[in-house]
Amino acid sequence: xxxxxxxxxxxxxxxxxxxxxxxxxxxxxxxxxxxxxxxxxxxxxxxxxxxxxxxxxxxxxxxxxxxxxxxxxxxxxxxxxxxxxxxxxxxxxxxxxxxxxxxxxxxxxxxxxxxxxxxxxxxxxxxxxxxxxxxxxxxxxxxxxxxxxxxxxxxxxxxxxxxxxxxxxxxxxxxxxxxxxxxxxxxxxxxxxxxxxxxxxxxxxxxxxxxxxxxxxxxxxxxxxxxxxxxxxxxxxxxxxxxxxxxxxxxxxxxxxxxxxxxxxxxxxxxxxxxxxxxxxxxxxxxxxxxxxxxxxxxxxxxxxxxxxxxxxxxxxxxxxxxxxxxxxxxxxxxxxxxxxxxxxxxxxxxxxxxxxxxxxxxxxxxxxxxxxxxxxxxxxxxxxxxxxxxxxxxxxxxxxxxxxxxxxxxxxxxxxxxxxxxxxxxxxxxxxxxxxxxxxxxxxxxxxxxxxxxxxxxxxxxxxxxxxxxxxxxxxxxxxxxxxxxxxxxxxxxxxxxxxxxxxxxx
Length: 508
Known about the structure:
With about 500 residues, the chain is mainly α. About 45% of the residues lie in helices and about 5% in strands. It has helices spanning about 15-35, 50-60, 105-120, 130-150, 160-165, 190-210, 215-230, 255-270, 275-280, 295-310, 315-330, 355-375, 390-400, 425-430, 445-450, 480-485, 490-505, and strands spanning about 105, 155-160, 180-185, 340, 345-350, 380, 385. The strands form 3 sheets. A 3-stranded antiparallel sheet has the order 1-2-3. Strands 4-5 form a two-stranded antiparallel sheet. The protein has a two-stranded antiparallel ribbon with strand order 6-7. β6 and β7 form a beta hairpin. α4 packs across α7 and α8 runs antiparallel to α9 (about 275-280). The longest helix is centred in the C-terminal third of the chain and has 21 residues, at about 355-375. It starts with 15 loop residues before the first helix and ends with a helix. The relative contact order is 0.15.
């Protein structure tokens, strides 16, 4: 994503007749996903199951590497097949973070953690889509596992020269900008990116354990090693990796939040109490009112509250209290709220890719509501009564806004609803596919012939959720407006969990 320094936390043997039926069914599913359809389900609610399928499908359009035979998003093709060669390692695969062709390890790891958490907490409500969600997790986990294990003591944290990439508008299949490799190690520490990668590997190991136990074991072993690197050799990765990372995904919140986050996930995955002892010693007590790829404090506190509420372990009560403080800072009627809402009722945290904060906060609200319901918990924000129903209502309102219940009457998810963004800030979507235009499209030709064109993008990036409207609910649908028109993986990842919960609650 472009210019992310301004949007950081400023703090997805049968008979021939049976085979024919299966083929027909599969074809109907694909057509439904890739085309518009009715999006109002029973009792006037949105068709959350359809939105869920599309939110997961989006991740296929973000894939880097050699695409598999079952790739549904056919306007994408193989790309980045030599990634890692600059360091004599294999770093093919993974996801492009947004509308560019760079692989940033920090937000990719957060995306992986949130996709995995979505499967762990709400996978039972995904029904037929849980396999697709796990596939999205595994695509990222495969890459992170390579990044963490190919060179002992080194974690590879990025591929691509971001500045050079952002000076070009070209398909990932055509890109000829430098594929520079970035890494952290004992001599070049990056506790933030290492802590997040450990969290991602640990979460993915749990999400995938039921389908591939051996693979999950490899993920967890890598998570332990990467977490050890984060703890033993502390520092901010943006201070050491170069490549002007600070202009894109520097950790403005520091790295203590990732040390807490990574330890919390490893505690859940391993049941090793040494992780509790460590996270309890960190003193990561800052008050927060947002959760993002940068600042993990709120997410870690909600995750640790699971032990207090579900397992009734009193040692985790301080984290429950901090999680509820976060919620009190989010609720619009709370006396301690520090969260702005638009006239249309959308949380507004930043002028840059605001919907990422909306989906991540909504995920935490729904997940904490789950823990509260299991434990019979309620609490108050300086006199304002809070129960699971109130948290679910706010999260549902935010998701419904994204899906079209807003002053613009526009869905901010591509190809969901009757009206949605047509000119998203996304290179592969805005340029003709290799299948339709085999000739290479050069760096500057992309700008001249496509970036500045006024028409709709030729490739419909189904399920992509853009940055969203401004604080007055306005949305220009302008390809050049990356702050509002660019979709990102870390916006969709927590939304997958939200939509899974809602699809399971409000069935068509």
